[in-house]
Design brief:
Keywords: Hydrolase. It is built from nine helices and eight strands. The chain has 239 residues and is α/β, with parallel strands linked by helices.
């Protein structure tokens, strides 16, 4: 199976390095992405928006589908803001995706943005100070991991966080989904859906959703990478 891994804000493809070994060992082909504007601290982020990142994922899906394994379906994995990005790509290519995996994230609905409240610096969003985040985000992210995160962080293009998502193909609802719940539980997510929380309306429309708990903070690829890799592998092999 081809697995496309989309990082969350401030991160590049290398953020998946400690997650992918069990996937590779099981014989799957992994494709961790560095999205436009995240190539380096010095890269230009001007003019890069949410659709730019969605298009980059769609291009990778198309590249895989025209390779040696013609028509081979892919699994999309998105962490945090990457969940919105893979959902946009799923909407564009619903027939090419066998499962979407949302790592401590949810599919975003039509007309919503990922997070238009983050502090910006011109065309980019630097990694904020830790006190901007809620305490559940930071569970298990000790001083050493925080220092490593700061050292590797790349400013996020402003448009990716602020642009509104556009969706057009309701076939996306039929693609099986896995939510790997870290700073919340699957039980909490179900309760939020039952309570008609607007931010989970899109998730509530999916036909086939499973919830897998991995209790930790918002960055399990750093705090519990081996366990995250195992959870992704289990979901892939169910797909």
């Amino acid at each position: 199976m081809d697995i496309i891994l989309v990082p969350g804000f401030w991160l590049d493809a290398s953020s998946w390095d400690d997650v992918t070994p069990p996937l590779v060992a099981a014989g799957h082909r992994v494709h961790p992405l560095t999205l436009p504007g995240l190539e380096s601290v010095d890269a230009s982020r001007a003019g890069i928006g949410l659709q730019t990142h969605i298009d980059a994922v769609v291009a990778k899906i198309d590249e895989i589908s025209t390779g040696d394994e013609i028509g081979e379906p892919v699994v999309l994995v998105g962490h945090s803001g990457g969940g919105t990005i893979i959902h946009g790509a799923l909407d564009a290519r619903p027939d090419a995706v066998v499962r979407a995996i949302y790592v401590d994230s949810f599919p975003t609905g039509e007309g919503m943005s990922i997070n238009d409240g983050l502090p910006t610096n011109g065309e980019e969003i630097p990694l904020p100070a830790w006190d901007v985040f809620d305490q559940p985000d930071l569970v298990d992210l000790d001083d050493e991991l925080r220092a490593q995160f700061i050292a590797r962080a790349i400013p996020e293009p402003r448009g990716v966080a602020f642009d509104k998502l556009r969706l057009t193909d309701e076939r996306r609802y039929a693609v099986p989904a896995t939510v790997i719940a870290c700073e919340f539980s699957g039980e909490q997510a179900r309760a939020w859906i039952a309570g008609e929380e607007p931010f989970l309306a899109e998730l509530g429309r999916l036909h086939d959703v499973e919830y897998v708990d991995l209790p930790t903070g918002h960055w399990p690829q750093f705090s519990r990478p081996a366990e995250l890799g195992a959870r992704i592998l289990e979901a892939v092999e169910r797909g």
